[in-house]
Design brief:
9 helices, mainly alpha, single chain
Length: 177
């Protein structure tokens, strides 16, 4: 395959995302959850465990509400969840994915995955400052916001076929040209 065909394939969207993108997206997610857990166990092991359970609940709800109706159901998707959805739920309809309404307030539960460790990190740093905690906290913030933005903007959403069918997140986040 020459470079021109490969470039054209990307612009149209991937039928199934390359494994390196699935891997990168999965690593970013695992790092966010892992670093968030590490920060929050500084307050209490139980808070850390509750945080992981919350993250698991968020992932479960994404699979249930979005992934079942996604074009990438049972395929390698850019966010690493397409192959997980069939393990738990039956396939839905990609057109239903496009019909979902998305508003900023509906994203609050997703944002809380980042907010809980940020709040915990601030509390811990104010209570008992340490350079190592500050470093971990900084890495968490960079990965949570920068890493997620790069994965979605440069690797996943940019080449997603579901966006062609309809995606409320794409409509919400992409700038109108």
């Amino acid at each position: 395959m020459n470079l021109n065909n490969k470039s054209a394939e990307k612009k149209e969207g991937y039928e199934s995302f390359p494994l390196y993108i699935v891997f990168l997206a999965s690593v970013v997610t695992i790092l966010i959850y892992g670093l968030g857990f590490y920060i929050l166990i500084g307050i209490s092991i139980w808070i850390g465990i509750l945080y992981l359970l919350y993250c698991l609940r968020i992932e479960f709800m994404i699979l249930k509400r979005s992934c079942v109706n996604c074009y990438y159901y049972d395929k390698f998707c850019g966010l690493g969840k397409g192959k997980l959805a069939p393990l738990f739920f039956k396939k839905g309809d990609p057109k239903k994915f496009a019909q979902r309404e998305l508003a900023w307030y509906t994203l609050i539960p997703d944002f809380m995955v980042n907010i809980f460790p940020i709040a915990g990190g601030i509390i811990l740093l104010a209570r008992d400052f340490s350079w190592s905690l500050l470093a971990i906290f900084t890495i968490f913030i960079i990965i949570s916001f920068g890493g997620t933005a790069v994965i979605r903007g440069q690797f996943a959403c940019k080449y997603c076929k579901q966006k062609e069918i309809g995606c409320p997140a794409a409509e919400m986040f992409e700038k109108k040209k």
